[in-house]
Specification:
With about 500 residues, the chain is mainly β. About 10% of the residues lie in helices and about 40% in strands.
């Protein structure tokens, strides 16, 4: 018992010290409730002409958490400081006290209610009964739950939202900032907590836990039961944190559990979707006019705030391979969607430094939405956005065109060298060849003028199954494959990673 008292004292001291800079109590409703209770008890003691009283235990689910000590200390202080009282307050379990004040702490939804009884020691008769109610907050929950089993290895508390389940989740109202109030929960052994989230707008939703226990979180589409994401320690310390793109009106379910079934304790839960004044969205994107050639393109300069997202609308006027990129020193992440909001491509650092870059074959007249955000919700800073097709007319089509699909592949003989061109950045050349003698063969694709043409080759069997590929296996940026091949027909797919190919290339296949 002595160790428990020391623990409780230290716990209360630490919590009180953390709020010592505030002139107002962190729990003003609770302090006012104690003050009112002291007045009611005082009036009853005066009426009964009590002489000696003792403040007994206030229990929560059969235990005495730090909240009990705080409550008893506050109540004792209020009674002692009432002027001209005609009774004495004894400390400890005084045997000669004529009256005892005891109570029970109850949780109900987001309310804490304390039932207090004034008991006559001689016959244990209840002389007075009182009740005090006030709102819960994280401070109070920590005092109730964190040490409710002080001195033991497990906690046995529950929270007012139990029982909850997939079929009966707790509805959480999504906030608009990282300061969204927490919902305080308590995990018992093997427990899971279920939170229903229904965003009112599209955006990037952050879901996180706080506290000192090791939590694990899953995110589901509530109506389809599809798991969308999961996380262990993505938040601070051992807390879970998920950031996910959500759709307005869609129902999502967050499930929180301990990392292992034996983990118990209190934690906080919150979900927020940051809404910035003047922010863009899927419904209200920035219209961007696609350029021709990067040197002539318009750059839109934007600034990302914490948790921010920017949306750009692109409507190409022709088919082709479109480049979309960011510039600057901010670590950006980019996602490309079609008009139905299907994710087509995404990228983190394919551009220079930590910039994002996507290259995608687009169709004239189609609507595309580009979402740009920071790599994490804490990323802030300025960046530039640009999108363009390669300049036309740099290279003319070669004699082997059209050869943009396997059925149009032109034949190359072993030992032969062919000169070809990528007449556009999205040009693909398919080549067919025959192996009559099994063995090891070398396949090269290299720029005619130098090795800085960034070629890429993929090798397929006669059934068009991919069997090998290479990017920079040759000198410089040239592609090269060395592979054992059996007798049969093979197909070679050659394409270029440069945005604007500026030279022809040679391709040859030779026995090694």
């Amino acid at each position: 018992m002595k160790k428990l008292s020391i623990f409780v004292f230290i716990f209360i001291f630490i919590i009180s010290a953390s709020y010592s800079q505030n002139t107002e109590s962190p729990v003003p409703q609770m302090d006012e409730a104690v003050r009112n209770l002291a007045r009611e008890i005082h009036a009853k003691l005066v009426e009964t002409r009590a002489e000696k009283i003792v403040i007994g235990q206030f229990t929560f689910q059969g235990s005495q958490p730090p909240f009990s000590t705080y409550w008893v200390n506050q109540l004792t202080s209020e009674l002692v400081n009432i002027p001209r009282r005609n009774y004495t307050i004894l400390s400890g379990n005084a045997a000669d006290a004529g009256w005892t004040v005891i109570g029970e702490i109850i949780q109900a939804a987001d309310i804490i209610r304390v039932y207090t009884r004034l008991i006559r020691s001689s016959d244990r008769a209840i002389e007075g009964s009182f009740q005090s109610s006030f709102q819960r907050n994280e401070f109070i929950n920590n005092m109730i739950f964190q040490a409710s089993a002080a001195g033991s290895s497990t906690a046995t508390g529950t929270d007012p939202w139990e029982p909850d389940s997939w079929d009966s989740p707790v509805t959480f109202t999504i906030g608009t900032s990282a300061n969204t109030p927490l919902m305080n929960r308590f995990l018992t052994e093997g427990d899971e907590d279920f939170f229903l989230l229904v965003p009112e707008r599209d955006g990037r939703l952050t879901i996180e836990t706080t506290g000192n226990i090791d939590t694990f979180m899953h995110l589901y589409n509530y109506d389809t039961s599809e798991e969308l994401d999961s996380d262990d320690d993505g938040g601070q310390g051992l807390n879970a944190r998920i950031v996910h793109n959500v759709r307005a009106g869609t129902r999502y379910l967050a499930v929180v559990r301990g990392y292992s079934s034996s983990i118990t304790g209190a934690y906080g839960f919150r979900a927020f979707l940051i809404v910035r004044e003047g922010a863009t969205s899927f419904e209200n994107p920035i219209s961007y006019e696609i350029g021709i050639g990067e040197s002539n393109v318009t750059t839109v300069n934007r600034t990302l705030q914490q948790g921010d997202e920017d949306f750009f609308l692109l409507i190409p006027q022709r088919d082709g391979r479109l480049t979309i990129k960011t510039t600057g020193r901010t670590d950006t992440y980019m996602e490309l969607f079609d008009a139905e909001r299907e994710l087509l491509a995404e990228d983190d650092d394919s551009g220079q430094n930590t910039n994002a870059r996507i290259r995608y074959n687009v169709r004239a007249g189609s609507r595309y939405i580009v979402l740009v955000r920071g790599y994490s919700t804490s990323t802030t800073g300025s960046y530039g956005f640009r999108s363009f097709f390669p300049e036309a007319g740099l290279l003319s089509a070669d004699e082997y065109e059209p050869d943009d699909e396997p059925s149009l592949a032109k034949l190359i003989r072993i030992g032969e060298t062919q000169t070809r061109t990528f007449h556009s950045a999205d040009d693909i050349d398919w080549i067919r060849f025959q192996i009559t003698n099994a063995g090891r063969y070398v396949i090269n694709a290299r720029g005619v003028n130098n090795n800085r043409l960034d070629t890429y080759i993929e090798l397929f069997d006669s059934n068009l199954n991919l069997i090998a590929e290479d990017d920079d296996g040759g000198d410089g940026l040239s592609a090269r494959l060395s592979i054992n091949l059996g007798v049969g027909t093979y197909y070679l797919k050659v394409w270029c990673l440069d945005e604007e190919p500026n030279q022809a290339y040679t391709v040859n296949i030779s026995a090694q």
